[in-house]
Amino acid sequence: MGACKDALMLVLLDSNIYFSALISPCNLPARIIRAWQNGRFCLLTCQQQIDEIREASRNPKFRDLFQSHQIGTMLNNLYGATLWQRQLPRKHQAADPADSYLLDLMDAAQPDYAVTGDKRSGLLEIGKLGRTKILSATAFCSSVLHLASS
Questions:
Q1: Is this prediction's pTM over 0.85?
Q2: What range defines the domain where residue 51 resides?
Q3: What is the dihedral of CA 58, 93, 46, 138, to 10 degrees?
């Protein structure tokens, strides 16, 4: 994986966290992104997630919300994260099949945390996969980053 310091925790963010951060620069997902940019944790992603974000950004409902340069900047920033290079095993099935690769990435890379805002995916109900704790943005901010909600 990438050039992340071993001492930092490794965190996987669901794609909805990135889009939520773009919608409101003061919300908890935006604060999570800033914490990563400030070196509070190492971010884990994979090419499949980057492709998913790129494809979702072309959806008409998102095109009205975001300017193309915002998506471009977000995608470029993701290439600075720890990018999983190996083939993902296809072992898991999420309630939302589009999120199954996230479970496979958690199983393969074993990040410390996975953060999601998607209640439909079933990820929060799983709670933990291997060593990875699956948390909401609110729980991650309060219990891990020790950020008060505003």
A1: yes
A2: 10-144
A3: 80
